[in-house]
Amino acid sequence: MSEWAILIVGSIAAGWVDAMIGGGGLILIPLIMAVFPAMAPAAVVATNKVAAVTGTASAAWTYVRKVPIPRKLALTYIPLAALCSGGGALVASLIAKEVMRPLVIVLMLVVGTIVALRPSFGQAKSEENPVMWRRVVTLFGVAAIAFYDGIFGPGTGMFLIMVFTGILSQDFLASTALTKVVNTATNLGALVVFALGGHIWWELGLTLAVANVIGAQLGARTVLGGGTRLIRILLLVMVVVMSSYLAWQQWG
């Protein structure tokens, strides 16, 4: 009971963090591994996806009720994200994490540099109808990030926010809302693949899902109360935390 209690509290914390800026998996996946060290890595990631997809979907629902997003574009991104994430999950075992981590660290530092050096980034009013080239480039960006989410995952939400902010010229709040919708699809695509492979511990996953929803609701309300300035601060903090964590995994 004490082990499950620790994981439930951890899942609430992961849902709270993930709803604000992404990165909840960095909390819950290591925690599951620590509590159940004999659990297979694929089962850990798969069980985490059960919690992640429900928490992210819950946060997405809260955001879209308060923040206007380009719904037609969102409906285009959802099936694309699910398919690409599922494809990434299928080939996950073929790409070594030691190869992915350095690339992700570099990309995160680029993200942090852009946000730090451009205070106006993410502050402009969102465009209602972005031009065609922006939509096409965003489609490729969403496909690549979703595929990455199925393979590895850390930083997915952050990268989606940057794509929607930088290419679609949206403010941070609208980008975060759209990110949660698309991230729900990426989690679902990978979850289906993991479920078909029989990797999920359903009792644990569904228990953690309830806790993750509670945390996600708290996180979404925190962001809606703080606005774009809070998201900018959280983005910079998450760049430092995630880059340090991945660097420790790689070279520590």
UniProtKB/TrEMBL annotation:
<comment type="similarity">
    <text>Belongs to the 4-toluene sulfonate uptake permease (TSUP) (TC 2.A.102) family.</text>
</comment>
<dbReference type="Pfam" id="PF01925">
    <property type="entry name" value="TauE"/>
</dbReference>
<keyword id="KW-1133">Transmembrane helix</keyword>
<feature type="transmembrane region" description="Helical">
    <location>
        <begin position="76"/>
        <end position="96"/>
    </location>
</feature>
<keyword id="KW-1003">Cell membrane</keyword>
<dbReference type="GO" id="GO:0005886">
    <property type="term" value="C:plasma membrane"/>
</dbReference>
<keyword id="KW-0813">Transport</keyword>
<feature type="transmembrane region" description="Helical">
    <location>
        <begin position="102"/>
        <end position="121"/>
    </location>
</feature>
<keyword id="KW-0472">Membrane</keyword>
<keyword id="KW-0812">Transmembrane</keyword>
<feature type="transmembrane region" description="Helical">
    <location>
        <begin position="230"/>
        <end position="248"/>
    </location>
</feature>
<dbReference type="InterPro" id="IPR002781">
    <property type="entry name" value="TM_pro_TauE-like"/>
</dbReference>
<feature type="transmembrane region" description="Helical">
    <location>
        <begin position="181"/>
        <end position="202"/>
    </location>
</feature>
<feature type="transmembrane region" description="Helical">
    <location>
        <begin position="7"/>
        <end position="36"/>
    </location>
</feature>
<protein>
    <recommendedName>
        <fullName>Probable membrane transporter protein</fullName>
    </recommendedName>
</protein>
<dbReference type="InterPro" id="IPR052017">
    <property type="entry name" value="TSUP"/>
</dbReference>
<feature type="transmembrane region" description="Helical">
    <location>
        <begin position="42"/>
        <end position="64"/>
    </location>
</feature>
